[in-house]
Amino acid sequence: MKNAWLRWGLVFLWCSMIYYFTESPAFTGEHTASIIRYIVQKLQLKHVNNISDGFLSWNYIIRKLAHLSVFGMLAFLAWKAMYPRSSIVNYITSIFHFKKRRLQNTVFSAISSQKVTSFKQ
């Protein structure tokens, strides 16, 4: 029971951190673009020119990767809180095993229906 409170506490702590950083003016798109410009200037990367010009700019890519990692961690924490005894390796292999079994059943049913159809003709 104590571990369940800890796991759900981590989920809610992570949610509160996401909320804090969302509301913080330091994590706006303009501020992120200015940090990227500063890094590009310090490293003298003259070939990096598309920093904040919209879709597929460096600002867009970095912010989307940050969202992916932050919400991916939230999903992982929530999954571990709901299913504490399962491991990520077992989960991933069960997904692939299910897809493999489903593909095998689909191929088998397609082949068997083809044989039945050809046998009737």
Describe it:
The chain is mostly helical and 121 residues long. It has two domains: 2-85; 87-121. The protein has helices spanning 2-23, 29-43, 58-82, 88-120. Helix 1 runs antiparallel to helix 3 and helix 2 (29-43) crosses helix 3 (58-82). The longest helix has 33 residues, at 88-120. The model is unreliable at 115-121 (pLDDT under 50).
Secondary structure layout plus pairing:
Blueprint: H1 2-23, H2 29-43, H3 58-82, H4 88-120
Helix content: over 70%
C-alpha end-to-end distance: 65 Å
Radius of gyration: 24 Å
* Average of pLDDT: 76
**What is the number of strand segments?**
0
What are the secondary-structure elements, in order, as H or E? HHHH
Question: Which characteristics define this entry?
Answer:
4 helices, 0% strand, 79% helix, mainly alpha, 121 residues, disordered C terminus, 2 domains
